[in-house]
Amino acid sequence: MRDDRAGRHARDARTPLGSRPQDARREQPQRARHTRPRDERAGAQERRGRHGRPPAPRGLVPRPGRRQLDGRAYQLGQGRGRGLSGVGTGRGGLLGTALPVSPRSLVTLAGGVCALVLVSLVVRCALLPGPGRAYNGSGGMEGLLLFSDDEDAVFAASLLLPDELTPILPGSPTISGTTASGGSVLQELTDATHAIEQAGFAVGYAMLDLSTGVSVSYNADAQFYSASSIKGPYVTSVVRYELGDSAQSSEGSRISAIIESSDNAAYSNMRDAYGNSSFAALVDASGAAQMPSHGATSAVAKAAAAQSGASIADNKYEFFTPNQMLALWQQCYEFLSSGKPGASWLASVFETPETSAIRVTAGTLGTTWSKAGWYPAGDAGFGTTVDAGVVRTSTGDVLVSVMTTEPENFAAIESVLSPLLALRSTLA
Asked: Is 270 exposed, middle or buried (0-12, 13-18, 19+ CB in 10 A)?
């Protein structure tokens, strides 16, 4: 059956221009079916492009040791077909090569050129405003006179191309609260950010210098899966609102396991024991629930919609944005540095987590309080690596949160965190 279809394609190609293919088959049915050898019919299948290889043009005969064209050797100018320069060996044809051109091909080519010219004229007429008339399109161009009656219209490419075809360049970190530019350190941070994105992952971060009010952020309203990073604010809320000085004596072992070793069972047991009311109070004080948010990716958005309850304080594990995590940690910072009952002891626990990019990267700058989180790839939307906390330096304290959809990769967090903290020094 496949060979017969190949034969019909080949016969259609030989049908004279303007004739009906079915008439040609009625005129010579036996010749078309029986005179072509089986291997020639198989060759027709090869000419249709089996294995994705383009067909050899008629008139270019395969010869070993000749010029290579798409992995096959051809001897130029030895065809029998009619080339662009005439009939024969075709030595004077296009680049010395005789290429076969049938009347059907010439008509098709001419029609294509005409169609292209027509479409170009229609598009240009549709886009060009009349002489002296203001362009009323989108993009902030309202009321702008592009050219006068005696001037030629000149348009940027963005005006002639549809929005979906206009290239979108990667974003850059946003600096607020200062006029300093950040220089080469900002470029290093931008490069590290784009490297994560070019690897196929989303990334977002936020940093706030508590002494100057300067902030740096990128994709800070995008939601990421919190994984175990939620444990830091939750434990802080329980000690702050319920346990106080009794935290070390009554829950010291469990809290240390949660913060230092990120023990999931200990955390789950503590949530079951103390519920969500203390955490809800911390969330309310931070204003995190009212902050804008959207999924860092479509998979994250779908997972967050299915996971989230009525409040971001309701689930043992949640989806947060870098800005929300920063707001939660600002509440943690206010308690841990306050000297209130249980605060100093809990702060000492936050200094020694077993896994934390903040502790590793910023440990030389001063004391750090942090809680990281990570989750492996597998469940769509849940793959993540997160670290958030406080860096206490001799020149002031800094809140920082870095989140990415890259699963279990603290090297990626460190690649952003290092220039982010260095940038803080240049902006001071």
From this structure: buried
The yes-or-no verdict on residue 255 having pLDDT over 90 is: yes
Helix (H, G, I), strand (E, B) or coil at 203: strand
Tokens 């090297």 appear where? 411
pLDDT, average across residues 326-353 = 98
How many other β-carbons are positioned within 10 Å of the β-carbon of residue 49?
10
Place of tokens 């029986």: 34
Average confidence (pLDDT) over 72-100: 40
Whole-angstrom distance, CA of residue 348 vs CA of residue 360: 16
Q: Rounded distance, CA 327 to CA 399, Å? A: 9
| pLDDT tens-place string over residues 1-50 | 444 444 444 444 444 444 444 443 443 444 444 444 444 344 444 444 44
Residue 128 DSSP symbol:
P
CA atoms of 147 and 330, how far apart (whole Å): 54
Query: If residue 428 lies in a helix (H) or strand (E), which one and from where to where?
Result: none
**What one-character-per-residue DSSP string does 227-296 give?**
GGGGHHHHHHHHIIIIIGGGHHHHHHHHHHHHHHS--HHHHHHHHHHH-SHHHHHHHHHHTGGGS--EES
Q: What is the pTM of this model?
A: 0.62
Separation of first and last alpha carbons in the chain: 78
- Output the six-digit token pair for 225: 């899966």
pLDDT in tens, 59-85: 434 444 434 433 333 333 343 333 333
Angle between helices 183-198 and 410-427 (to 10 degrees): 160
The DSSP string of 383-396 is -EEEEEEEEEETTE
Between CA 138 and CA 166 the distance in angstroms is: 14
Helix (H) or strand (E) holding 218, with range, is: strand 215-218
- Residue partners of 371: CB distance under 8 A and separation at least 6: 228, 229, 231, 232, 233, 259, 262, 350, 353, 356, 387, 388, 389
Q: Are 228 and 267 in contact (CB under 8 A)?
A: yes
For residues 365 and 112, which has the higher predicted lDDT (pLDDT)? 365
Q: Report how far Cα 262 is from the mean position of its chain's Cα atoms.
A: 30
**Cα 227 to Cα 158, 210, 384, 391, distances in angstroms:** 42, 26, 7, 21
Q: Could you tell me which residues come within 8 angstroms of residue 118 by beta carbon, excluding any fewer than 6 positions away?
A: none
CA distance 76 to 311: 74
HSE at residue 180, side-chain half, CA atoms within 13 A, is: 17
Region 356-371 average pLDDT: 95
